[in-house]
Amino acid sequence: MPQGEEDAARAFWCGIIGLAEIEKPEALKPRGGLWLQLAGADLHLGVEAGFTPAKKAHPGFRTAGIDRLAEQLNAAGHPVTWDAAIAGRRRFFTEDPFGNRLEFLED
């Protein structure tokens, strides 16, 4: 993520996606970024000088209630693109506020 964009990251990941923020260790706070809690894992958003968004490589997040999430993202100005390439799974792609590609899937 770009430097100084923690509030935009919080609005997206906590406000729209619904993840809880985890407090970073004191030694890492000066570096910026944001840590988030997932089911059984953490998501660490680090600040990168000369940031360029990831347009192809991406994380995939398994979710329940994918239609509601798609509606929330669209309403917040993050368009979703549905993809039916995987049998038995509903999924879509979107971008975070910084242009990083994200995938959300539901079995």
From TrEMBL:
InterPro entries: Glyas_Bleomycin-R_OHBP_Dase, Glyas_Fos-R_dOase_dom, VOC_core. Residues 1-107 form the VOC domain. Pfam families: Glyoxalase. It comes from the Bacteria. This is Glyoxalase. It comes from Marinibacterium profundimaris. The lineage of its organism: Bacteria, Pseudomonadati, Pseudomonadota, Alphaproteobacteria, Rhodobacterales.
